[in-house]
Amino acid sequence: MKRVSKNILAIGGSDLTRKIFGFLSITYLTRHITVSDFGIVSIAFTVLSYVLILSASGLPALGTREIAREFSQGLVARIISARLLLTIAVTVLTITVTLLFVSNPVVAAMIILISLSAIPNALFLDWFFQGKEAMSIIGIARAAAACLNFFIIILFVKSSTDILL
Q1: For 65-108, how does the pLDDT look when each residue is reduced to its tens digit (9 = 90+)?
Q2: Of 18, 3, 15, 13, which is closest to residue 149 (Cα–Cα)?
Q3: What's the pLDDT tens digit per position in 38-68?
Q4: Taking a C-beta distance cutoff of 8 angstroms, is the pair 55, 91 a contact?
Q5: Do the Cβ atoms of 36 and 162 come closer than 8 Å?
């Protein structure tokens, strides 16, 4: 029962931390950028969410199940390679569609920039630690990412002119 309690606390704590820093990030952005720029950011993150869904294609769930069942040599490399190839393909497709169909250059640039963040996301090993039931590592990484995101926003976004940065 100790492992379960520790995992629940780790995920719960990281979720709370992510929600607090997410709220602070949104609050800061709404006070420092225009409504239309906030809409552009929202559109770009919506596109990113679809890129992430398509590029994952169930591979993290498969990896988690296989790791929980039994660790096999080379599984991590195979799943990361497959995710990376899928992510690059979906990102290239997204960039192509964006360049062809989005006429506003600021919106297109934002979609492309934010969609590129899917590539390093393909290298994340959260599914591995989930399969190993090491939720504290996942919790720490997620909380740290939320904090870092907030501090990057605070450092670099002072007005709407900084939005692409």
Answers
A1: 999 888 777 899 999 999 999 999 999 999 999 999 999 999 99
A2: 18
A3: 999 999 999 999 999 999 999 999 999 999 8
A4: yes
A5: no
| The one-letter amino acid at 69 | R
Q: What are the tokens at 40? A: 């552009």
DSSP label of 1: -
- CA-to-CA distance for 153 and 156, rounded, in angstroms? 5
With beta carbons less than 8 A apart as the criterion, state whether 43 and 34 touch: no
Alpha-carbon distance of 99 to 117, in angstroms, equals: 17
Angstrom distances, CA of residue 11 to CA of 64, 70, 137, 141:
16, 23, 9, 11
| End-to-end CA separation in angstroms for the chain | 46
3-state secondary structure of 159: coil
Give the list of residues 6+ apart from residue 26 with CB closer than 8 angstroms, or none. Answer: none
Question: Helices marked H in the chain — which ranges?
Answer: 2-32, 35-56, 59-69, 75-101, 105-115, 118-121, 126-131, 135-156
Q: Could you please report the per-residue DSSP string of 102-128?
A: ---HHHHHHHHHHHTTHHHHTT--HHH
Angle at 140 between CA 78 and CA 63, to 5 degrees: 20
Q: Closest Cα to residue 64, out of 54, 76, 51?
A: 76
- What's the rounded Cα separation, in Å, for the pair 71 and 79? 13
